[in-house]
Amino acid sequence: MIVVMNPGATEAEVKKITDKLKSMGYGVHLSTGENRTVIGVIGQRREEAAQAMEAMPEVEKVVFITRPFKLAGREFHPEDTVIKIGDVTIGGPEINIMAGPCAIENEEQLLQAAKAVKDAGARILRAGAFKPRTSPYSFQGLEQQGLEYLNDVRKRTGLLIITEVMDQFTVDQVAECADIIQVGARNMQNYYLLRELGKIRKPVLLKRGLSATIEEWLMAAEYILSGGNYEVILCERGIRTFEPYTRNTLDLSAVPLVKQLSHLPIIVDPSHGTGISGLVPAMSKAALAAGADGLMIEVHPNPQEALSDGPQSLTPEQFKTLVKELKGVALSVGKLI
Predict the structure, then answer these.
(1) What is the per-residue pLDDT across 94-120, written as a single tens digit (0 to 9) for each?
(2) Domain range for residue 149?
(3) H or E element, residue 124
(4) Is the pLDDT of residue 71 over 80?
């Protein structure tokens, strides 16, 4: 249920309503737009709350939300959410590309990749210190040493850092290093982890699960939002289907659909979405044309020797060419890179 305040409602009037709701045992979440403030009401006995709110002169109307994702939906927050990290914005007119190697292998490899993606125009470095792998015998990442390398590279390049968190026990450890914390596809429904991420005040990038529906994906975001962390970025990275020619099936229809259903920014990962480096340029362009707010692309100094995801990684030269080509696509949809 949402409570829509009268246009121009003062802070005191909003506080009066939120205090009333809290005294009745409800959780409240504020969404403040240019003209109106909307209060999300979480709890049982909705009819009781509705009757109390409709009697308040400060309230314009009460609206029941039928979809299960209350805080992620546009009914609660009609305007697009724009996440600001320093001078970088995600969700507005600016397209940002997160680029770098799948896994941190050593300091030299990471620094080389970071300089290359920055030179091409990326402002956010993606690289994994913790690597969840299907096989226990595959390279699992450098863990704490990798985080230390990321900290050092940030100081040397000025790039923002996004890296993956594996579980609820390492949230603080990763948060000390990351500007954006990534939740991988395998952890999309790790509810203990999502609850912990709801307690922090740092942007979280939530990848779609391997076989997750859009509703399940938005409900996973709801866990983070309901904890009080409203800085959630969605990432479409392909879903598992019957098609064997690609690693996953990149569901680009999810981008405009999520834009209709939710106010959260959404980016696309064409590297995991296809698993084939030769398909990444075309799917990157298609993602921007579909309305994506950004891209996550794997770039490795030498993909043939990569310890993880080499076949889907671009070389620095290929990435630089792609960024130039993407600028024209961004302009065609009214955005800038």
Answers:
(1) 999 999 999 999 999 999 999 999 999
(2) 83-332
(3) strand 124-126
(4) yes
Number of domains in the chain: 2
Q: What is the CATH number of the domain that holds 175?
A: 3.20.20.70
The torsion region of residue 83 among left (phi > 0), alpha (psi -120 to 50) and beta comes to: beta
Q: Quick one: tokens of 187?
A: 């952890």
Determine how many CB atoms are found less than 10 A away from the CB of residue 252: 20
As given in the structure block, the two tokens for residue 219 are 């409900």
Report the alpha-carbon distance of residue 73 to residue 149 in Å, rounded.
Answer: 38
Q: Which residues contact 90 (CB under 8 A, 6 or more apart)?
A: 82, 83, 96, 203, 233, 265, 267, 293, 294
Query: What is the separation of C-alpha 87 from the centre of its chain, rounded to a whole number of angstroms?
Result: 17
Assess whether 91 and 36 both reside in one domain. no
Whether 56 and 187 share a structural domain: no
Ranges 5-14, 114-123, 200-209: which has the least confidence: 5-14
Predicted structure pTM score: 0.92
Q: Is residue 73 part of a domain?
A: no
